[in-house]
């Protein structure tokens, strides 16, 4: 189940418009109209992006009279970060080993040139 949830989260994050919407919501709640301002796309297109973000759990939407605002829900981002952190540690370790190997090779080459 966790992998399926991560797939939905990463699929939602794959789109640059949705990432920009999340960045805007990190500053505070916003309406569809406010979220649409920087984009050259229609309000229905923004609404579709919001639906994807909501289905991924990345945002929550509320209604107050005629206004419908969206809020950032950071928990799914934390889940994705925790998952990626394991791989960051793996790559950091491998890059450190590669760096040490390259330094040994460089030192050996310098010795051979003398």
From TrEMBL:
Any Pfam family matching the protein: HTH_20
Cross-referenced PROSITE patterns: HTH_ARSR_2 (PS50987)
Bilayer-crossing regions: none
UniProt domain HTH arsR-type: residue ranges: 1-92
InterPro entries tied to this protein: ArsR-like_HTH, HTH_ArsR_DNA-bd_dom, WH-like_DNA-bd_sf, WH_DNA-bd_sf
Domain of life: Bacteria
Molecular-function GO terms, alphabetical: DNA-binding transcription factor activity
NCBIfam families: HTH_metalloreg
Protein name per its UniProtKB record: Metalloregulator ArsR/SmtB family transcription factor
Native organism: Micromonospora sicca
């Amino acid at each position: 189940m966790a992998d399926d949830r991560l797939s939905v989260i990463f699929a939602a994050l794959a789109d640059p418009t949705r990432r920009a919407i999340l960045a805007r919501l990190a500053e505070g709640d916003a309406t569809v109209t406010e979220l649409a301002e920087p984009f050259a796309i229609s309000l229905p297109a923004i609404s579709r992006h919001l639906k994807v973000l909501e289905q991924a759990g990345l945002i929550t939407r509320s209604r107050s009279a005629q206004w419908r605002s969206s809020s950032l829900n950071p928990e799914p981002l934390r889940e994705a970060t925790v998952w990626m952190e394991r791989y960051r540690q793996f790559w950091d370790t491998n890059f450190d080993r590669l760096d040490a190997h390259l330094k040994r090779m460089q030192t050996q080459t310098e010795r051979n040139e003398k």
